[in-house]
From TrEMBL:
<dbReference type="InterPro" id="IPR006652">
    <property type="entry name" value="Kelch_1"/>
</dbReference>
<feature type="signal peptide">
    <location>
        <begin position="1"/>
        <end position="22"/>
    </location>
</feature>
<feature type="domain" description="Attractin/MKLN-like beta-propeller">
    <location>
        <begin position="50"/>
        <end position="306"/>
    </location>
</feature>
<keyword id="KW-0732">Signal</keyword>
<protein>
    <submittedName>
        <fullName>Kelch repeat-containing protein</fullName>
    </submittedName>
</protein>
<dbReference type="InterPro" id="IPR056737">
    <property type="entry name" value="Beta-prop_ATRN-MKLN-like"/>
</dbReference>
<dbReference type="InterPro" id="IPR015915">
    <property type="entry name" value="Kelch-typ_b-propeller"/>
</dbReference>
<dbReference type="Pfam" id="PF24981">
    <property type="entry name" value="Beta-prop_ATRN-LZTR1"/>
</dbReference>
<keyword id="KW-0880">Kelch repeat</keyword>
<dbReference type="InterPro" id="IPR036116">
    <property type="entry name" value="FN3_sf"/>
</dbReference>
<dbReference type="InterPro" id="IPR013783">
    <property type="entry name" value="Ig-like_fold"/>
</dbReference>
<keyword id="KW-0677">Repeat</keyword>
<dbReference type="InterPro" id="IPR011043">
    <property type="entry name" value="Gal_Oxase/kelch_b-propeller"/>
</dbReference>
Length: 488
């Protein structure tokens, strides 16, 4: 009994150790500190520099711009905006930063200032700000994102502290505004990101009976047809969060959940159409800005606690380069061979296959150990598309790249082996398998090689086996016959 108990304890320790190893290279690193800590900032990246624009500290909003160089880890300043503001949103079009709306007072208590409709454009080449056409209405906590040369601005908060459903599109070329279909729900404090030619609106807050509530909503907007689609909800509510895209996934970072700042982070995988939890920030924060640059996520500023009015000055960086599964697929004579890199901490892998690129995928094997798999249930001439997901316990975590392969037309043969006792054995094999058998036989005839040779029984397999081989003893073989044919 004690042996069983010890074994169970060792298993539990190994599982937790494996999970720790999986996250070891994926923790958030505090890389730098802002010269002036701010909450309610908006951020943008141009030419390898991250611009932290405006924000507030205590009861004061600011117009200054703090610039971070992630390569040198050095902070500098740029020209200040014309208008001090917090709770604004920024987007980059043609190498210029556009800042939309905001609030001129206290980020934490939303008083002591006013909601504005001001739009300003920053040109890094001249280090100057230019006023542009005002928004159709004054709004704070809007969500702005650039798409196809225009800026889409979603929702926001009015001066009467009411959330709105409006979608406004700004055209920098003509400096004009146009309306689009309303959102499914009135929201402010969401984040808009683009992925695969769609715009996604992540999280947010809404007001009801003078109270503010965070949501776990996640919606997809198709700007080409002006249509909204509901997607899987976040695992927790998040208002005033930050969000960005890294390695084809959407990361939802921090925010208010439900009534206090959180340091939790989750990622949406569009292939699996699901959210999964990833390592948490070092500091809980809302009202921060997130930027992806050079394969890393940078989170800047924010509020650590709405009750303490304490802005967060640290810059946290997340690198998922160690959290990838590299998958390759190779077509063989009768099967497709899959090989992938090991994901530290994984207790197994799920193999998924499709006949169309991008899916939908069907799981063909679950909880596979090791890092290779041979898919024999394939047909010649068809291209198959695969992904592999890692599992830790019962939780599916990271997804590999998509890899494809197919079995080309090939020569095959019926190998008939007659044994010395008169018994005949027949196998349908690829010519490479037949040639391997012949090479073994001739080598053994010459006095070298093993005493027996295994032949894969392929479709004659029965039961829950990955492979069944029949072994032939050299001196028990009388004759063998090869009848070659071609498959298309």
């Amino acid at each position: 009994m004690w042996k069983k108990v010890i074994l169970m304890l060792v298993t539990i320790i190994l599982l937790f150790s494996s999970t720790a190893l999986a996250d070891e290279n994926r923790v958030w690193e505090v890389q730098s500190n802002m010269p002036n800590a701010r909450a309610g900032v908006t951020v943008a990246q141009i030419n390898g520099k991250i611009y932290s624009i405006g924000g507030s500290s205590g009861s004061t909003s600011f117009s200054d711009v703090q610039v971070y160089d992630p390569n040198s880890k050095v902070w500098t300043t740029a020209a200040s905006m014309h208008t001090a503001r917090t709770l604004s949103s920024a987007a980059v079009v043609d190498g210029k930063i556009y800042v939309f709306g905001g609030y001129t007072g206290n980020y934490y208590t939303f008083n002591g200032g006013s909601v504005i409709d001001s739009v300003e454009m920053y040109d890094p080449a001249t280090d100057t700000w230019t006023k542009k056409a005002n928004m159709p209405s004054s709004l704070a906590s809007v969500s702005a994102v650039a798409y196809d040369g225009k800026v889409y601005v979603f929702g926001g908060l009015t001066s009467s502290i009411n959330s709105v459903r409006t979608v406004q599109v700004y055209d920098p070329a003509s400096d004009t505004w146009a309306a689009r279909s309303d959102m499914q729900q009135a929201l402010h404090g969401s984040v808009a990101v683009t992925l695969n030619n769609k715009i996604y609106l992540v999280g947010g807050r809404y007001t009801y009976s003078s109270r503010v509530y965070s949501v776990n909503l996640f919606n997809e907007y198709d700007p080409t047809i002006d249509k909204w689609t509901s997607k899987p909800s976040l695992s927790v509510t998040r208002g005033g969060l930050s969000a960005t895209v890294l390695s084809g996934k959407i990361y939802a970072i921090g925010g208010v959940s439900p009534d206090a700042e959180t340091n939790s982070v989750e990622a949406y995988d569009p292939v699996l159409d699901k959210w999964s939890v990833v390592p948490s920030l070092n500091n809980a924060r809302s009202g921060s800005g997130a930027i992806t640059y050079n394969g890393k996520i940078y989170v800047i500023g924010g509020s650590q606690s709405t009750s303490s009015n304490a802005p967060v000055g640290s810059v946290e960086v997340f690198d998922d380069s160690e959290a990838t599964i590299i998958l390759t697929a190779t077509g063989k004579d009768t099967a497709i061979s899959l090989d992938w890199s090991v994901y530290e901490g994984a207790t197994g892998y799920n193999i998924k296959r499709s006949t169309t690129p991008g899916g939908p995928y069907t799981t063909i094997a679950s909880n596979v150990t090791g890092n290779s798999y041979l898919d024999k249930n394939v047909s010649s001439g068809i291209t198959y598309y695969y992904i592999v997901t890692a599992t830790i316990g019962s939780t599916e975590t990271i997804t590999s790249n998509e890899a494809s392969a197919k079995i080309e037309s090939a020569n095959r043969a019926i190998l008939t082996i007659t044994l010395v006792n008169g018994l005949e054995k027949e196998f349908d094999l690829s010519m490479s398998e037949v040639n391997s058998f012949i090479q073994w036989y001739e080598a053994k005839q010459a006095g070298t090689g093993t005493a027996s040779y295994p032949i894969d029984k392929h479709d004659n397999n029965k039961g829950p086996f990955t492979e069944r081989n029949e072994y032939f003893i050299f001196d028990k073989i009388l004759t063998f016959e090869v009848s070659e044919y071609t498959i298309n």
